[in-house]
Design goal:
This protein is an alpha+beta fold and about 220 residues long. Helix content is about 35%, strand content about 25%. It folds into two domains: about 60 residues, no CATH class; about 130 residues, Cupredoxins -  blue copper proteins (Immunoglobulin-like, Sandwich). Helix 1 runs antiparallel to helix 2. This is Cytochrome c oxidase subunit 2.
């Protein structure tokens, strides 16, 4: 049930999402300050019956209302550019995973040592005992606190690989390889869905990512092989 204390952003599961949440709060504080200042100024001007004819040609006023928005934009742009750079930078990945979008499922390929490839379909409702419409038969399993690189593409139409709690969203474009950096802070299950309208079953190609410790990940790799 919704309450006033639950109108928050989703909990972060990666350093990228932490930075995005911080940037969101930073920008919202600036926007609230601007809204309050404009509201106070408009309220004051509506109550004031006097007029100042000197304001019509005031160079000082024009300088102020030109300079202030520029300064505000700089305060918004600096953290934004920092986050964009951090999201695009690939920092010595320990694991590379190739993700392919299909109509309408995902396939994953682990090819760092020996090739491991599998397909991930949405679980049918009749075989479901957990999460409806977002649980898959084969989960993408990765170790936590490990720098990873995802190479994303598509075999047919444009898809989009997205996990909101990690602040990750990358288009899967046919004939093009896009890459993103990913590091998960803790273990658990994380869910996402295709975020590009890709056809009739667009709503039925979920993403299930399971984050485990390194020992469990190695055992999972051995069992898959």
């Amino acid at each position: 049930m919704a309450s006033w204390m639950k109108f928050n952003m989703i909990n972060s599961a990666s350093p990228t999402m932490e930075q995005l949440l911080t940037f969101h709060d930073h920008t919202m504080m600036i926007l609230l300050s601007i809204t309050m200042m404009v509201t106070i100024m408009m309220s004051t001007m509506m109550k004031n019956k006097m007029s100042n004819n000197l304001l019509n040609e005031s160079q000082t006023m024009e300088t102020i209302w030109t300079t202030m928005p520029a300064i505000i934009l700089i305060f918004i742009a600096i953290p934004s550019i920092k986050i964009l750079y951090m999201m695009e930078e690939i920092i010595n990945p320990s694991i590379t995973i190739k993700t392919m979008g299909h109509q309408w499922y995902w396939s994953y390929e682990y090819s760092d040592s020996k090739k491991l490839e599998f397909e991930s379909y949405m679980k049918p409702v009749e075989n479901l005992n957990s999460f409806r419409l977002i649980e898959t038969d084969n989960r993408m399993t990765v170790p936590f606190m490990t720098q990873m690189r995802l190479i994303i593409s598509s075999s047919d139409v444009i898809h989009s690989w997205t996990i909101p709690s990690m602040g990750v969203k990358m288009d899967a474009v046919p004939g093009r390889l896009n890459q993103i950096s990913l590091m998960i802070k803790n273990t658990g299950l994380f869910f996402g869905q295709c975020s590009e309208i890709c056809g009739m079953n667009h709503s039925f190609m979920p993403i299930t990512l399971e984050s485990v410790n390194m020992k469990t990940f190695i055992e999972w790799m051995k069992s898959k092989k």
